[in-house]
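Project standup — Tuesday

K.O.: blocked on the structure for the chain from last sprint. Re-posting the sequence here as requested.
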Amino acid sequence: MTSVPHSPASGVPKRDIDPSTGRSVPSKRVNQPYLVQQRWLAKQERKKEVQKARAEGRTLPPSDLDEEEPSPLARFISTAILAALGAIAIALLGGMFFQNDPLWGYRGKWSNWRTYLPTQQQVFTPERLIQFNGDDTSRPILLSIKGDVFDVSAGRIHYGKGSPYHNLVGRDASRAFITGCFTTHLTHDLRGMSEKELAALDAWHAYYTNHHTYHKVGTMRLPPIDPASPIPESCHNSPGQKP
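H.V.: unblocked you, prediction finished:
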């Protein structure tokens, strides 16, 4: 809004220009709603004049009522955003219509709301992680695989006390994920594992990373493996069900 300058020492109150008349009026609080409305109306009228002039091939002189035209890049970005939002809306509505599910049956990392929230990643020691082994139902259930710690509380039926995979939580039992030995291979010692077996461990790690309800909460400070210690003996007790 255009203001009429004045000298503070003069004691003359600050004044504004009324766009509808071009006259100066006192810049009082009570006048502001009226002046804002009049300036908005003046801008709308200016837009009509500019559009008419363009249609006639004329160019109007600049005015303080002119709004800055967005750059081609800004217009492209805004159009792309609107198109993307429209495509997402159509996809969600299509899922509801055809499958009664806006996500079309997808359940993975990107459908987990925790994925989009910043979380404070923690560093766990073996002594601390064992406190989250599911024995205390008031605490989350955590497991570590390849040194990454995941919250698997949503799968308490699988990992809670007395469940089939209870031995895997509260520790890094990466070797057991490969061998299926849930009693003697509860260690992160991967010595002697073949490339195929290590690839299987990578698949397990991806399973937790991309899970719909499990989520990463930190990393584990794993103790070093004594190279002089014996490699855990082979075990063939391997259940086929995924935790």
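K.O.: great, moving the ticket to review. Helices lie at 32-55, 72-99, 126-129, 156-159, 174-179, 195-209. Confidence is low (pLDDT under 50) at residues 237-242.
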